[in-house]
Specification:
The chain is α+β, with helices and mostly antiparallel strands and about 160 residues long. The chain has helices at about 10-15, 25-30, 75-95, 135-140, 150-160; strands at about 40, 45-50, 60-65, 100-105, 120-125.
């Protein structure tokens, strides 16, 4: 039997078993270290960052700056920027990575799969034909073909090239 080592997954596993005391997203915003925290864009009411535990390279999240848990809690201005930024970041991912498709989703509530149910966010997951292989089924392991920092720098350069 061969072993596939993924030691970076332990951080996710350990955090998954404990309820966070504070909002991870609000903490990242307060840290003011966007590159370290994978924040690609801060807008007037919303921001975009890479998912630290992605399903695929380029898996991005778009969130309101304010800590709000539902669509109904968003102001009209936040709602417009929330969807508009998701559309814009999808275009950035497309230009930078040439995916063949996307999954976009909002999980409302823990029962619906929200890992952070009190800070609403939309997932943008680029997809390629054949990107899901047998590893998740056989070994409960997801193989990512690109390092997270490499993905961040590619998307950062593309975002700069299309302007803010």
């Amino acid at each position: 039997m061969e072993h596939l080592w993924a030691p970076w997954r332990m951080e996710y596993i350990e955090k998954a078993v404990q309820e966070p005391k504070d909002c991870v997203f609000c903490g990242l915003l307060a840290a003011q270290d966007d590159a370290k925290n994978l924040i690609l864009y801060r807008g007037k009411t919303c921001f975009a960052l890479l998912n630290k535990f992605p399903y695929n390279p380029g898996h991005m999240l778009v969130l309101p700056l304010a800590h709000k848990g539902t669509l109904e809690a968003l102001t009209p201005e936040e709602s417009l920027e929330f969807l508009g930024l998701a559309m814009r970041m999808r275009g950035v991912i497309e230009k930078a990575m040439s995916p063949q498709g996307f999954n976009l989703g909002i999980n409302l509530g823990r029962a619906a799969g929200a890992g952070v149910p009190d800070h609403i966010h939309i997932h943008l997951v680029p997809r390629w034909t054949g990107d899901c292989n047998f590893m998740p089924v056989l070994a409960d392991v997801k193989v990512l073909p690109q390092a997270l920092r490499d993905t961040y720098h590619i998307l950062e350069r593309t975002l700069e090239s299309v302007g803010t």
